[in-house]
Amino acid sequence: MRxxxxxxxxxxxxxxxxxxxxxxxxxxxxxxxxxxxRPHFQFVHTLIERxxxxxxxxxxxxxxxxxAPAGALARGGALFRQHCEQCHGGPGKAMGVIGLSMQPxxxxxxxxxxxxxxxxxxxxxxxxxxMSGMPAWRFHLDEQEIWDVVAFLGALPAMxxxxxxxxxxxxxxxxxxxxxxxxxxxxxxxxxxxxTQFACQSCHHIPGVTGPLTFVGPNLEGLAQRSxxxxxxxxxxxxxxxxxxxxxxxxxxxxMPQLGVPERDARxxxxxxxxxxx
Length: 278
Description:
Oligomer: single chain
CATH superfamily of the largest domain: Cytochrome c-like domain
Low-confidence stretches: none
Order of helices and strands: HHHHHHHHHEEHHH
Mean pLDDT: 89
Number of strands: 2
Number of helices: 12
Structural class: mainly alpha
Strand order of the largest sheet: 1-2
Distance between the termini: 55 Å
Radius of gyration: 23 Å
CATH topology of the largest domain: Cytochrome Bc1 Complex, Chain D, domain 2
CATH architecture of the largest domain: Orthogonal Bundle
Helix content: 40-55%
Number of domains: 2
CATH class of the largest domain: Mainly Alpha
């Protein structure tokens, strides 16, 4: 029996190594078609989707959905139209061009409440889904706003196109800042995550942050040892927060975009950058 188990283990290891070698050859040769006009094979799509479903259910298992307060459905509907409709559409409303073109396709959410529990819809909305284009909204919406969206998703299956059309789509507006003195102490681990949620790694190389090899913006390695930020402000955590939040005020005409980063996120990001780049 021991010999049989050992033989099976060795066989599995060798099969795994052979599979990795074959995959490496295919990728290095450029044979894999990475274009969005050639979707995954159905078995690949099914495997990934099944893995995602199990992951969500596992990680959301301890979340307790609160009772929806008055007005949650209306607020959630407005937020859905403002942030979610462009990729997911709504009753009688097609998704935007971006959503139509994405692979994997985001798909409608009119049946989400039939497939997911409230705690699972909260987890997906708050944390996003890796390699799907679904962002982690907890960096762009507050806790109650996310639960308001979940409340609205719960009502979507019974909503008609006429009902949905009555929901007013709000104009984009900056999020209100917390009252003075309520900003938490900088959290470096959270700052590392915040950098990914504002796509900072799409332009900069950032130590410890996974991203493409890009040269759009300066390499941030060694930032803590530099004398100035953007050639204008002496390097300090406070000045880095100012640069992250208001680059056009610090250096008019800079190509660094105004991302609308809240103060807490900027402080966490600055704390991580100055520690990780020492």
